[in-house]
From TrEMBL:
Keyword annotations: Signal
Lineage: Bacteria, Pseudomonadati, Pseudomonadota, Alphaproteobacteria, Hyphomonadales
Name the record gives this protein: Lipoprotein
Secretion signal, residue range per the UniProt entry: 1-18
Amino acid sequence: MMPRIGLLFMMVFLSACAKQPPPVDDALCQDAPAIKKAIKSDQLNYVPDHVLNPPLNAPEPSLLDPIKIRPCDVVALDIQTWGEHPNGRLLRNSFDKIDGEGRLEFVSETWERSFVRNTDDDSYHVAVQTRKFYLVTSAKPVTWQIYYSHESDTVWMAPDLLMSAQLEP
């Protein structure tokens, strides 16, 4: 009787083990130093594997479909902000929050500022295009949320959620 119970237990245990997916290798990206060097040496022309570009004027946050990632992928976050005062007020007032088991490593940031003339009231606006580069250094899911707060709201108001993205292996 005991051998049958042991055999039955072993069959159930082995069938349960066979149904589980293989464990994910969480090794760091081996090419990370070379990739970081390539990004920093030519930020304006580096082509990332994925680009996230949340619209600031959207009525609701962008909820993206899951994005498939692999270790060593480069993900760029593009944000364009507008301001009315080109003489030093805070224009780059966005931030992101990264959660989950996976890891994204910030590599570099570049930005350009351009002046746009409003023909209606002869005023100038400033457009700032910011690109942040992140390196995927693990093979586990990451939840990435991007927030934006207006200049006058940075102290008193909660920021607005612009975009939420799920990065999955």
